[in-house]
Amino acid sequence: MGKLFQNSIKISLYAILVIIVWLIYSIIQFGNFYSPLYLKGLSNPYIYYKDNIASVLLRNGKEYTINDVDTRDWNAYEDKEMGFKFKYPNNLHYNIYPKSDTGYLIEFTDNNKIFNIEINYPNLKWDCSYYLGKNSLPRVRHNIESQLANNNIGELWYIRTRNNDVFKISSTNFNIEKRNIDSDNINFTSVIFIGESDKHLFVQISQYGKIYKYDQILKGIFSTFEYIR
Hints:
Layout: H1 2-30, H2 45-60, E1 62-63, E2 75-79, E3 84-88, E4 93-100, E5 103-109, E6 114-120, H3 137-149, E7 157-160, E8 166-173, E9 187-194, E10 202-207, H4 215-224, E11 226-227
Parallel strand pairs: 1-7
Antiparallel strand pairs: 2-3, 3-11, 4-5, 5-6, 6-10, 7-8, 8-9, 9-10
Helix pairs in contact: 2-3
C-alpha cells in the first residue's frame, strides 16, 4: 500500500512537471498558455488559419469588398526576395525606406499626394515570434473567440482575395455607433496574408498614417496581392 502511494505521488509530480514545462514553453512560444489540442495543425499555418480562423470569420464576420476596383492598368510592384507582388496605380511613383530586417516602408507619390504603406514579415532566422508568423495564429484565434464571447461581432471584418482566401482585417478603429467600415471615421490598419506553399509566407500590409482618402488604392493593393513562390 505504501509503495502504491509512493508511485501515485511520483506520477502526480511528473504530471505537474509536464504541465509546468508546457506552460513555460507555451508562454515563450505563443505569448499565452494554450493546450496542445488548441495548437493541433499549426505545423501547416495556412490550413490552421483556414480551419480555425477563416471559417469563423465566414460564419460570424462581415466581408469588406476589395474586388470592386479596376486595376487592369495598374503597375506591378514585386518583392522577389520575400516572394510576393501587388499592383498600384500607374500615376504613382514610389520610394522604399528600410525600417528593419523584418520590414520597410513604401511611399507612393503623384507629386502632390502621398500614400504610405508598411510591409512587415517574420524574421526567418527565428520561427518563434508570436507577433507575426505561424506562432501568432493561436493568439489571433483566441482574440476572435473572445470577441464572439463578448458579442463584439461588429469588429469581425475580413477580406476575400481573388484566390478565395479569407483574411482578417487585423485592427480597425470603428465608429462605435454605426459599426460601419465604410464610415469616414474608419482607420483601416492592416491585413496579414498567409501563403500556402511555405510555412514562412506571412506578409503584413499596413496603413502608415491616416489614409481615408486613399481607400481605393488600398483596396487595389489588397485585391492584387499574391505570392509568387
